[in-house]
Amino acid sequence: MSGPTSQGFPAEADKLVVITGPSGAGKGTLIKALVEAMPELEVAVSATTRARRPGERDGGEYWFLSKQEFADRTAAGGFLEWVEYVSGHRYGTLRSELERIRSAGRTCVLELEIQGALAVRDELPGCLAIFVDAPSFEELERRLRARATESTGEIEERLALARRQRQQAGEFEYAVTNDDLERAVSEVAGIIGRARTTAGSMSA
After folding, report:
1. Which segment, 143-152, 156-165, 183-192, is predicted with the most confidence on average?
2. Pick the CATH number of 44-104 from 1.25.40.20, 3.40.30.10, 3.30.63.10, 2.40.10.10
3. Which of 14, 44, 103, 134 could share a disulfide with 140, CB 3.0–4.6 Å?
4. What angle do CA 158, 108, 14 make, to 5 degrees?
5. Backbone phi, then psi, for 59, in 5-degree steps?
6. What class has domain 1-40+106-197?
7. From residue 88, how far is each of 76, 84, 97, 201 by CA, in Å?
8. Where in the sequence of the chain do the CATH 3.30.63.10 domains occur?
9. Which residues of 125-157 are buried (b: 16+ CB within 10 A; e: fewer)?
10. pLDDT tens for residues 49-72?
């Protein structure tokens, strides 16, 4: 399901696509395929206070910051949005990362949790926000359990949260059902293309 946005695509200096949705919706997989199909897109690398894992590099998977560095940047207004999880680790989107991507002439793509996406949309109402969901709660549950990377308790917590998050789809300009990856990527690409066309005709 999709619907029109009242804002259109943001101006060239502010163009931003936000992809959100519950865990298990396949957001990461969709974004990876979308960027491969649309090379003018680039995913913003999030910052985190968690320790770097073997094989990870700064600016690759994440920008790795100490807790003090993260706090300093937060105080200085360096984050567009950030969140702290139960683990105590913080994750956020650096404004400098958005500027880096935009200065290269690319469209910035953010993968965010629901609350982060709403916060970004409130601050940058010109952004294009897209809610991605699984075709059903049962399929979403199957995907989460198939990961086999979390305990049963953690999965149950994610499922409870996902049930609530799915009810927030109506708060976003567009909603895409990720039942078939190729079709979902095509739909998201079409949304971006139409929004650009609308913005171009409005500015002409």
Report:
1. 183-192
2. 3.30.63.10
3. 134
4. 120
5. 85, -5
6. alpha beta
7. 21, 6, 23, 46
8. 44-104
9. ebbbbbbbbbeeeebbbebbeeeeeeeeeebee
10. 999 989 999 999 999 999 999 999
CATH 3.40.50.300 domain residues, the chain: 1-40+106-197
Q: How far apart are CA 163 and CA 25, in angstroms?
A: 12
pLDDT score of 1: 42
d(C-alpha 79, C-alpha 56), whole Å: 22
What are the tens digits of pLDDT across the range 36-48?
999 999 999 999 9
Place of tokens 């709403």: 118
Buried b (16+ CB within 10 A) or exposed e, 25-54: bbbeebbebbbeebeebbbbbbbbbeeeee
